[in-house]
Amino acid sequence: MRVALAEDGALFREGLLMLLQAAGHEVVGSTADGDSLVELLSTHPADVAILDIRMPPEPDGGLVTAERLRGLHPDMGLLFLSHYAESHYLMRILQIGTDSIGYRLKEKVGSVDVLTDTLSRIEAGEIVIEPVLAKRLVERPRGDKKGAIASLSERELDVLRLMAEGRSNTGIAAQLFVTPKAVEKHIANIFGKLNLHADTAEHHRRVLAVLTYLRSQRDGD
User: Fold this and answer.
1) Which one of 69, 122, 157, 186 has the minimum C-beta count within 10 Å?
2) What pTM, to 2 d.p., does this model score?
């Protein structure tokens, strides 16, 4: 696929370029800041743009740049990279969009297979969340955290964690060694306990379920 890259760290940028080329992707251009990426993409279209979250033109310039790009190129995928798995970054990313978007740790995309899998899922319209962050977001609430979240079973929490990673029902079933039918049942239970009504689109309900956990963690801190 055609990929554009914005990363202010020269060493990591060059390494990522080599990795993308080794995976057979066409790199339409690379820049060190968000403004240059916007200018690049005005003349060199890409399927996915890869952005460092913490880069110029401001501390979290990747997020600001992505907001501009989503308005200018709504069909283009966005992959955010960072050294840090932060829930407040994920909240900002989900506000930018829930389709064709991803958030991965830099240290986890250091192989052709992982990077290609991530980019392919984003190009296909999925949302891809770093597994360690997804797991943290759906840990069983402790202390005074009450309500629907605490009512989920351990297996339902496992399913929701994998939903938060952007996995399909088939992918969840493979991870948990259960049937897709069992996954469908767990997801139906999750939607019911979180009061996500059936008149809402399936994809949207999955995102809302993840957002429920994000907000619970934020409010409980």
Assistant:
1) 157
2) 0.74
